[in-house]
Design goal:
Blueprint (H helix, E strand, L loop, with lengths): L16 E6 L11 E6 L4 E6 L7 H12 L4 E8 L5 H19 L6 E8 L6 H13 L6 H7 L8 E9 L2 E10 L12 E6 L5 H13 L16 E6 L10 H24 L7 E9 L2 H12 L2 H8 L5 H9 L12 E4 L2 E5 L2 E2 L5 H8 L3 E7 L5 E8 L3 H8 L4
Helix pairs in contact: 1-2, 2-3, 5-6, 7-9
Length: 403
């Protein structure tokens, strides 16, 4: 079960945004799997996409349409990634946009497509085309919860959060949803996330805000070290409130809320990691550079030996020590490295801390949430990432995914 994670009971409507969901039978039966999000005319839109070279057809098309400006609709399907589908995949993504445009009265390039699910299967465009009129008829401001559930694949728990932000001109709303559970790794993890606010922000400024928030949230999580072909994070600012960010304090307040929303959604993905039973925060300090700190954090977070020890609640601290040592830090003075497991010092001066006991390590490893702190004593740079353990269920879930 997910680690200390429950679905939100309510998500706030965002003026200028309407959503609809429907069961199109793309892969799943008896559940909604297709979402249409309509944005008010004049909305600003920012997005960050996967860096995987085999990016999916909807990513290619969404990037092109985003660059054209004037986005009015987002179309999201679950169960089929439309990735690894070549030229047909591009035609299918474009055709889906055209079908939405016809029903919604906009241009095809004002529709951005997003897909998640199995790679390498053709997108069932006829089913999507048939479902679009029903989607349009269901558009409502109060269907964020339904949309949150409709974009899920192997997720157990829906992921969403809302915030109200008080600015100089009044109060605005920020709501976000995300999906993701496995195939999670920095460079956008394997996820889709859609956020919207009724604040008015120019597109260039909104893009900079989103990139900064993503770098410190969705790019700081990992479940299994695999990046996806379909990752995307989208932020819309409808301007429906008429409220602008008029000064530095407004920008700080909005950015703080945006960061908190992205942090929550990113960490929710790790808490719902496929088969996860532990939520781990890795904090590396005293590095010479931020890149070096991240290098060490990644080495520990991606170690199957560390992750399986965490699943077993086994305080096998030697696996953490070994991962730090193989991280590739040049001229690392191991005699100055300190490693703490929760409130227990486990490594100092090149070996096991004199006061460390197996009982103390076992106590921390038995917890559902475990902080691991690694101090390199080389400088002032640091990095913090979130990960989870690797369980029997992870293998089962991914072995059975296409069956």
């Amino acid at each position: 079960m997910p680690v200390h994670l429950t679905e939100p009971a309510e998500l706030l409507a965002v003026p200028g945004v309407r959503l609809g969901t429907v069961a199109a039978g793309i892969r799943y039966r008896e559940r909604d799997d297709l979402v249409l999000m309509e944005l008010a005319a004049g909305s600003s839109l920012a997005a960050v996409f996967t860096r995987n070279a085999f990016c999916a057809a909807p990513v290619v098309v969404a990037r092109e349409h985003l660059a054209a400006g004037g986005a009015r609709c987002l179309l999201i399907n679950a169960g089929n990634a439309n990735a690894g589908t070549g030229e047909r995949g591009l035609r299918d993504a474009q055709a889906s946009c055209a079908h939405v445009a016809e029903v919604m009265g906009c241009r095809p390039e004002q529709v951005l497509p997003f897909s998640t699910g199995v790679i390498g299967e053709p997108l069932p465009v006829p089913r999507i085309r048939e479902a679009i009129p029903g989607l349009a008829a269901r558009l409502s401001a109060d269907t964020w919860i339904e949309a949150m559930r409709a974009i899920m694949t192997t997720d157990i728990v829906g992921k969403g959060i809302s915030r109200r932000i008080t600015l100089l001109g009044g109060t605005v709303t920020l709501t976000g949803i995300a999906k993701g559970s496995g195939m999670i790794h920095p460079d956008m993890a394997t996820m889709l996330s859609f956020l919207a606010s009724d604040v008015s922000v120019p597109t260039a400024e909104l893009q900079a805000m989103l990139e900064g928030a993503v770098e410190r949230s969705f790019n700081c999580i990992t479940v299994d070290g695999d990046t996806s072909t379909n990752d995307a994070c989208v932020l819309a600012a409808t301007g429906a409130s008429g409220i602008r960010l008029v000064n530095a304090d407004d920008r700080r307040r909005f950015m703080t809320a945006l960061q908190a929303v992205c942090d929550h959604l990113a960490q929710a993905i790790v808490r719902d990691g496929e088969g996860a039973t532990k939520f781990i925060t890795l904090h590396v300090t005293g590095a010479a550079t931020p890149r070096e700190a991240r290098q060490v954090a990644d080495a520990v977070a991606h170690s199957p030996l560390v992750k399986t020890a965490l699943f077993a609640s086994d305080p096998n601290w030697g696996r953490i020590l070994a991962a730090v040592g193989r991280a590739g830090v040049a001229d690392l003075d191991v005699s100055r490295v300190r490693i703490e497991l929760g409130d227990v010092l486990i490594v100092e001066k090149g070996g096991r801390a004199p006061d460390y006991s197996e009982e103390a390590g076992q106590r921390v490893m038995g917890e559902a949430e475990i902080p691991i702190r690694i101090h390199l004593a080389r400088g002032s740079a640091e990095a913090r990432i979130h990960t989870c353990d690797l369980s029997f269920d992870y293998v089962r879930i991914n072995a059975e995914y296409r069956s």
